[in-house]
């Protein structure tokens, strides 16, 4: 035992190894810290061995041991305190809503200096701090309290430490920390949008530049890519971009930002996965609009005339939990592509002559039980995706779809196929399940559709695979 602890370095090495092994045995975050400490402990033992071999003079040996042990203790203390370095945020009493620190804006005060590994930051009553300090220059962990010294329930604070906003029409961007306390709000995001407007007007300056432009290009021209940015608003000046498409999927927009209407060249607008609940009746202001998506929003009804949308051809309102079809969609004069997938429709009863121009209809993942006679209004349909429903037969009226080229009706318990499917002479591909079809049924279908690619899948096999 004496050999293990007969020098300062050996004692420190042993203690380091013990702490390291305890960390490894936790099998948690401290596992990797433990591995690191075990390595340090073994290194200390190696240094102790070298000092013993190289220093024959006992006095020099013990002086070296003492110096090295002292240096190690100082380094260990500094490392530990550096690990403990944090921002201490003091929120106003009973604060609720969105608070935030906006970093790197030239001309604003710096954050307080760090004292004894703690940077104390007082959040004002409005919850907003704008500073010239860069986020990289402060500790990356936080602790918090209220101004009356009461403790903060950390479960009530949603901290978003890496929220960034591109200013779009210039190469600047803004970085921030956001804190949502007990209620939903977008106050800080709105301030960031206003700052972007001032930066674009050369009234203010951000120390941060966008590494990647949010304006991209393809064969059709320039488009705006702002997917999953957490945005609640957009900066001014978008009309200068001359883009043909705006992708705003997965943000926190509750309406179409008014800046979108500045884009006279806009043809394609994607607003899917946003908490929009009211359909924008001023959509007709976008005169060149050809395609729009409100998929996975909160829109349940449309209470405005869409007949002025002369150029609109594609309309997507999928994944909205619709039970009733918004009748105003039928007023779109030149609609050719309609996506209604992942709603709650049970049949084709919403279809009438006003949808006669449809060429593509997505009705998959609903609760459709039958292909009802309204198919007589779909004579121009070329593509029908109606898989993942509850359809048991392909009926006689399938022949109404005389221009159909693609039919996907798999993941339906099809038991009967009408011979009149043979009248679909333009059909190029069909995909369906064969769980309830006999070989005779398959042979007949091949005979009826000699020039069509027929693909089968077995539902039971698919479910077993899952």
UniProtKB/TrEMBL annotation:
Q: Which GO terms describe its cellular component?
A: cytoplasm
UniProtKB keywords: Leucine-rich repeat, Membrane, Repeat, Transmembrane, Transmembrane helix
Per the UniProt record, the source organism is Algoriphagus ratkowskyi
Name the InterPro entries on file. Leu-rich_rpt, Leu-rich_rpt_4, Leu-rich_rpt_typical-subtyp, LRR_dom_sf, LRR_domain-containing
Membrane-spanning residues = 12-30, 36-55, 62-83
Keyword Transmembrane in the entry? The reply is yes
Record's superkingdom? Bacteria
Query: Which protein is depicted?
Result: Leucine rich repeat (LRR) protein
């Amino acid at each position: 035992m004496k050999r293990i602890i007969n020098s300062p370095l050996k004692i420190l090495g042993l203690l380091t190894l013990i702490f390291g092994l305890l960390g490894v045995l936790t099998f948690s975050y401290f596992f990797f810290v433990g591995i690191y400490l075990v390595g340090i402990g073994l290194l200390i033992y190696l240094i102790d061995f070298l000092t013993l071999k190289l220093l024959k003079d006992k006095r020099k040996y013990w002086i070296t041991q003492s110096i090295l042990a002292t240096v190690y203790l100082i380094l260990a203390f500094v490392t530990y305190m550096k690990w403990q370095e944090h921002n201490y945020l003091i929120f106003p009493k009973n604060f609720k809503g969105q608070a935030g620190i906006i970093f790197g804006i030239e001309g604003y005060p710096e954050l307080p200096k760090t004292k004894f590994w703690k940077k104390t930051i007082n959040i004002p009553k409005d919850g907003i701090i704008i500073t010239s300090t860069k986020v990289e220059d402060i500790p990356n962990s936080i602790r918090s309290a209220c101004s009356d010294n009461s403790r903060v329930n950390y479960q009530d604070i949603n901290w978003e430490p890496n929220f960034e906003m591109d200013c779009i029409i210039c190469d600047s961007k803004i970085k921030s920390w956001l804190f949502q306390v007990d209620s939903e709000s977008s106050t800080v995001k709105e301030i960031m949008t206003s700052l972007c407007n001032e930066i674009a007007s050369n009234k203010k300056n951000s120390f941060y530049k966008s590494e990647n432009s949010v304006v991209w290009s393809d064969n059709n021209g320039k488009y705006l890519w702002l997917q999953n940015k957490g945005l609640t608003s957009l900066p001014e000046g978008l009309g200068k971009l001359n883009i043909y498409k705006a992708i705003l999927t997965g943000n926190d927009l509750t309406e179409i930002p008014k800046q979108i209407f500045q884009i006279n060249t806009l043809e394609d607008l994607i607003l899917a996965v946003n908490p929009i609940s009211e359909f924008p009746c001023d959509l007709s202001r976008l005169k060149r609009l050809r395609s729009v998506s409100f998929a996975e929003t909160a829109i349940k009804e449309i209470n405005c005339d869409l007949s002025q949308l002369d150029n609109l051809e594609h309309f997507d309102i999928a994944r909205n939990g619709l039970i009733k079809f918004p009748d105003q969609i039928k007023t779109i004069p030149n609609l050719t592509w309609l996506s209604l997938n992942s709603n709650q429709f049970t049949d084709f009863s919403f279809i009438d002559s006003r949808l006669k121009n449809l060429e593509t209809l997505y009705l998959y993942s609903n609760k459709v039980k039958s292909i009802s006679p309204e198919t007589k209004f779909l004579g121009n349909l070329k593509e029908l995706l109606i898989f993942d429903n509850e359809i048991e037969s392909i009926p006689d009226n399938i022949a109404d779809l005389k221009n159909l080229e693609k039919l996907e009706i798999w993941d339906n318990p099809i038991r009967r196929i009408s011979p009149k499917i043979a009248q679909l002479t333009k059909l190029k591909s069909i995909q369906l399940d064969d769980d309830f079809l006999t070989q005779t049924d398959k042979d007949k279908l091949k005979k009826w559709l000699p020039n069509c690619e027929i693909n089968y899948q077995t539902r039971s096999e698919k479910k077993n695979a899952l």
